[in-house]
């Protein structure tokens, strides 16, 4: 699974364990998700291209590194993707944000699109697609199919938990898209949930059922 990057940082792993615990409150879950997404964002942006800009410090002019290109675009797969946005926006406050609305057909487990809104001028932007759970990989693959039609400069996929099935599906359909996750879990169950997982990420972050 060559395009998979597991962020094996002790703080990430500790916070993830607290989130998996079924006794964690909605508020606690959301706070942890915010904290962990900031740490994941640090890793996913590690190789962002830099260019040099001339500035003046109080002592001397210098050529100093700044991020190259247009503003990054974060693409949230609704609704659970929004849980990852806040932490990332703390790290990249000027990022643009796109949304893709998909639901999973409970019979076929296939993803169906109901909403798509991206910033203007996507070409030359680096896109980071966010969704906490990479389960079957169908939603992620469809979201990236649609996103590619807007021609971003690069695409990465960031999630909290991944199942081997989802990683394989995404790697097959989009081998050019690196995947970043806090953990690779064991498998999917017959309902398409990640095991051991953490349950339904959207329900746990919003207190719904
Ligand atoms: N979506 C979730 O929220 N949880 C899973 O385990 C799989 C998909």
From TrEMBL:
The gene is upp. Binds 1 Mg(2+) ion per subunit. The magnesium is bound as Mg-PRPP. Pathway: Pyrimidine metabolism; UMP biosynthesis via salvage pathway; UMP from uracil: step 1/1. PANTHER family: ADENINE PHOSPHORIBOSYLTRANSFERASE, URACIL PHOSPHORIBOSYLTRANSFERASE, CHLOROPLASTIC. Residues 6-208 form the Phosphoribosyltransferase domain. It is an enzyme of class 2 (transferase). It holds the Pfam family UPRTase. Allosterically activated by GTP. Its cofactor is Mg(2+). It comes from the Bacteria. The keyword Nucleotide-binding applies. One of its GO terms (biological process) is uracil salvage. It comes from Microvenator marinus. 5-phospho-alpha-D-ribose 1-diphosphate binds at residues 79, 104, 131-139, 200. Its EC number is 2.4.2.9. Uracil binds at residues 194, 199-201. One of its GO terms (molecular function) is uracil phosphoribosyltransferase activity. This is Uracil phosphoribosyltransferase. Catalyzes the conversion of uracil and 5-phospho-alpha-D-ribose 1-diphosphate (PRPP) to UMP and diphosphate. Keywords: Allosteric enzyme, Glycosyltransferase, GTP-binding, Magnesium, Nucleotide-binding, Transferase. The keyword Iron does not apply. Belongs to the UPRTase family.
